[in-house]
Write a structure and sequence with these properties.
The chain is of the alpha/beta class and 253 residues long. The protein has helices spanning 44-55, 80-97, 109-117, 146-153, 169-176, 180-186, 205-213, 234-248; strands at 4-9, 15-21, 29-34, 58-63, 103-107, 126-130, 155-160, 163-168, 191-195, 218-222.
């Protein structure tokens, strides 16, 4: 079925652009997806995951974080905490208009935000991450030589994935104040950790740290030849989609 476009209010009061990929008939469950840092809801890998979940009767709700994609707001005023809050706002919207998510999925920094947010969503029965860092501070290495400038001057323009973004000091202070590990240890929900051993953006050691911190049931899948964004080879995104759709089926009725 064609995806349904949705607008809902984010944590900072801005209109956020979302999309619902629904299967034919009544969904068996709803899943919520959080995209990677400075990315968006429409990456090809997410499209493949949506189709795979739809084939299992699962609807996927995905959205652009504040200031990204088609969502309103100023990205420079966002941080890791606001991403987590945007996820909770998405949950609240789903709970009111559709159904609360039984599954939460997150890619890269969106995976870390998912690990933090999922613990406060009682309806969630399973959580899965793709290339997620074990700490939000890992994202700072993407700022390179600009990091010192941001800290001393309060902000700087940083080129990320070929696009300029204004980063403020408050972003750095926020990620350094987080403890994703503590949230993982308290999660107490089935967890699937997927990571590539050749991931150059988030090292595979982060997957080990997430896995070690989590309680059982937990699973790890190595994405042997995949890049961080699952863009170099279409088959990597397809494989991830199939694994996720098969794994979550055991946790929903």
């Amino acid at each position: 079925m064609p995806a349904t476009k949705i607008i809902f209010k984010g944590s900072q009061g801005h209109d956020l652009a979302a999309k619902l990929d629904a299967p034919e008939g009544t969904p068996r469950a709803y899943a919520l997806f959080a995209h990677c840092f400075t990315c968006g809801k429409d990456l090809n890998a997410i499209n493949r995951i949506a189709r795979a979940l739809n084939a299992e009767g699962i609807a996927l709700f995905r959205f652009d974080f504040t200031g990204l994609g088609l969502s309103n707001g100023d990205f420079a005023n966002t941080n890791f905490s606001s991403n987590v809050a945007d996820l909770i706002a998405a949950v609240d919207h789903m709970r009111a208009e559709l159904a609360a998510p039984a599954i939460m999925l997150g890619h890269s920094l969106g995976g870390a935000a998912t690990l933090v947010a999922a613990g406060s969503v009682p309806e969630v029965k399973a959580v899965a991450t793709i290339g997620a860092p074990a700490d939000s501070e890992n994202v700072l290495k993407q700022f390179g030589q600009h990091l010192e400038t941001i800290e001393t001057e309060g902000e700087a323009e940083v080129n990320l994935s070929g696009r300029p973004f204004r980063i403020k000091k408050q972003f750095i202070e926020d990620v350094r104040a987080q403890s994703v590990h503590d949230h993982i240890a308290k999660l107490k929900k089935p967890l699937l950790v997927m990571h590539s051993p050749i991931d150059a953006t988030v090292g595979v050691d982060h997957a080990r740290r997430i896995f070690d911190a989590a309680k059982h049931p937990k699973s790890f899948v190595s994405l042997d030849k995949a890049d961080h964004l699952l863009m170099d080879r279409a088959e990597d995104g397809i494989y991830v989609a199939r694994i996720i759709s098969a794994w979550v089926s055991q946790y929903i009725e």
